[in-house]
C-alpha cells in the first residue's frame, strides 16, 4: 500500500507516522508528502526520511477543485492508495473526497463532534470542558464530520493553558494516528454508515 501524507505545518504527526513505518508498525510505503506551502517544516522531515515531496501553493488556482485536480494527477502518477491528512489546512473539494471515498483519514485535536474547525484545542479550553482529546476519522464532504475511527481522552487541568493542553493532546495524537493507519493498511476498518467497525 502506498500512502501520501498531506501537511501544512510542523509535521509532528508526520514524524510519528515516519517513525512507525520505520519500525514496521505500519507496513506500507510512505511514498509522498504533499504540502500547500514551501515553508512547512514537515517538508524538512520528509526530506530527512527520503520521502518524495510535492508542494503546490494555492496561488493561481481559481477554485478548490482546480487545485485538487492538480494534486490528484500527482497521486495517480504515484499510485497512492491512502491519503493521510496531518495538519493540512485546506478543505478538500467534494470532487477529491468522492474520488478517494473512504481512503482519506484526518486527525482533529478535539473529541468530535465537539469543537470542529481550526481552533479545536482553544475552543475546548475556553468552553470549560473537563475532558477533550484527539479524534481520527474518515474524511467526508463536511468539516471534520466523517465517520470516527479512534478517539483518546485527555483531562483538562484547572491551570492548563492552550500550550500545556496542546502538548498533552499532541502526545496522544502521535500514538493514535499511527494505530489507525495500521488498522487501515491491514484492512481492519469497515465503514458502515456513520459507524466504523474494527475487525
Ligand atoms: C494537529 O494538532 C492535528 O490534530 C491538527 O493539526 C495539527 C497538526 O500538527 N489537524 P503537526 O503539524 O502534525 O505537528
Walk me through the structure.
38% of the residues are buried. The chain has a seven-stranded mixed beta sheet with strand order 3-2-1-4-5-7-8, sandwiched between helices. It has a two-stranded antiparallel ribbon with strand order 6-9. The chain is built from six helices and eleven strands. It is globular, with a radius of gyration of 16 Å. The chain has one domain (2-198): Formyl transferase, N-terminal domain (Rossmann fold). Helix content is 36%, strand content 23%. The longest helix has 24 residues, at 162-185. It has 199 residues and is of the alpha/beta class. Helix 1 runs parallel beside helix 6 (162-185). The chain has helices at residues 12-22, 41-48, 64-77, 94-99, 120-127, 162-185, and strands spanning 2-7, 29-35, 52-55, 82-85, 104-108, 131-132, 135-138, 148-151, 154-155, 189-192, 195-198. Bound molecules: 5-O-phosphono-beta-D-ribofuranosylamine (GRF). 5-O-phosphono-beta-D-ribofuranosylamine binds at residues 7, 9-14, 86-87, 107-109, 134, 170, 173.
Number of domains: 1
The main sheet orders its strands as 3-2-1-4-5-7-8
CATH architecture annotation: 3-Layer(aba) Sandwich
What would CATH call the class? Alpha Beta
Reported by name, the CATH topology is: Rossmann fold
Question: Can I get a quick summary?
Answer:
This protein has 199 residues and is an alpha/beta fold.
Which keywords apply here?
199 residues, alpha/beta, Rossmann fold, 7-stranded mixed sheet, two-stranded antiparallel sheet, 11 strands, binds 5-O-phosphono-beta-D-ribofuranosylamine
